[in-house]
Known about the structure:
Blueprint: H1 9-21, E1 25-26, H2 27-33, H3 39-52, E2 55-59, E3 62-65, H4 67-72, H5 80-87, E4 96-99, E5 105-110, H6 113-122, H7 125-133, H8 136-144, H9 147-158, H10 163-186
Antiparallel strand pairs: 1-3, 2-3, 4-5
Helix pairs in contact: 2-3, 5-10, 6-10, 7-10, 8-9, 9-10
Amino acid sequence: MWSIPELNEAKRQILEVLWKESKPLKAKEIAERISKLSFPATMMHLLWLKRMGFVEAAKQGYYFISELGKEALGHKFPPKELAMALLTPTSLEKAFHFFAGKGNYLRIYARNLGEFCERIKEVEIRSVEFHMLRRDFENWFRGLGDYELAKRIGMLRDKNIADEELRMAIYETVRKRYEELQQALKQP
């Protein structure tokens, strides 16, 4: 059986940049995000990572992390049982309840990731920013058992984006995870 080869620090950093961005990047963009790695060195590592199946090319010059690359970083495809648990609606007590500020409940809630995607698009932007600042989204996802999604949302917080850009980034991140979980349910 084939095992995943050991990655050196530079290759691991490249995979982490691609994983964090969640979109295809040019080699130059990757090199800029890793301070100690030159463009030629980045290209050399990218070609090796592509040959080994850790990255794929979306189109000429753009790279993204593959499922094998995610697995090499320790981000395995979610097990079917976890996917089922995360997609099943929770009780009302465990649902995510949206507030516009302390004590200002909006009477909007989400009981699973699918509902969360719909609600995040319609809730007031001040609610989105309030919860993001307090790490409420991350904590709810973690409480559901989705540590992967909690980490992805935490990385969005670190980007210091706001307003509609923040809303759309959260929506896209959760929607993508929702689709991954649906795919996991279809796995044998």
